[in-house]
Amino acid sequence: MPGAATTRMQAFTGAKARSHVRAEILAIILLLATVACADRSILSMSASGIKQAFGLSAVQLGYILSAFSWAYVIGQVPGGLLLDYFGTKQVAGIALILWSLATFVLGFAGYFAASTVGAVVILFALRFALGIIEAPAYPANARATIMWFPKSERGFATSLFVNAQYFAVAIFSPLAGWLVSQFGWPWPFFVLGVVGFLSAVVWYAFMREPRHHPRVSQGELDYIMENGALVDIDAASERTAKSRLTWSVVKSLLTNRMLWCAYIGQYCIIALSYFFITWFPVYLVQGRGMDILNAGFATMAPSLFAFFGAHCIVAALVFLLFMGRIERVGEAQR
Q1: What structural domains does the chain harbor?
Q2: Using an 8 Å Cβ cutoff, are 46 and 185 in contact?
């Protein structure tokens, strides 16, 4: 009996001593996702100034605005493979430094472009590079979430970093509008480049595998492991068994009907959201006659409504599922 009491006491002490390092990791994941989304969307706030400075046509501006998306699609699969081969911390950290550099350098495009065509080439190349480099960002967030969070908490963590696209626009659009109105179109790129470099310092300082984090307690480690966290997904021993992308895998990805539903749904969401982070600010300035500062604040509205609307829909679905479960239980009892 004393042994049983001791065991219960140890279990109680372990529960009380459990750390919450995964909350810190979630904040870092959210930071990475927000910076990534801000870098890809910030061009729209400077687009009117860039168009005027270099004498661009609407078609030329369209090529520049779409460069990121083309490259991002191309880089997704290679980016995921790099994460599998070299691990989340290294790939995402290097990518963060490089895409921040591409963002920062874009602010100097006016010093290198001797003509309109030259400006189009330089701006397109830098945005294309940004898309390629940023490709591992969301897969890295997903891997970090799987590594640190048990199944019961993974949906919440994922929903936060997925909503980073709305956080980024809501936070940085007014800031970018103010910077453009006060200092000129290059300044949002300078500021976001510096923010990215500082974020890379935070990423390297705090991101660790669960087993090697200096502040994680044994209680928290046991809790996330016992509830489905893949704590060793980035371990060197796991990465030595490198997975191969085979034609059978590609075939299964392209022939699964459930996955096609996800593909189509994701396409519709991205197509709509990318309109608001590319052409919407340009429309407000050129089509509705707003100054860039007011356009920055107006650009917040779709993001805020999207964020709250998505969460209201999720809450409604959870409520309906819960009520349906109660009804089924009641019928079973009757």
Answers
A1: 19-333 (1.20.1250.20)
A2: yes
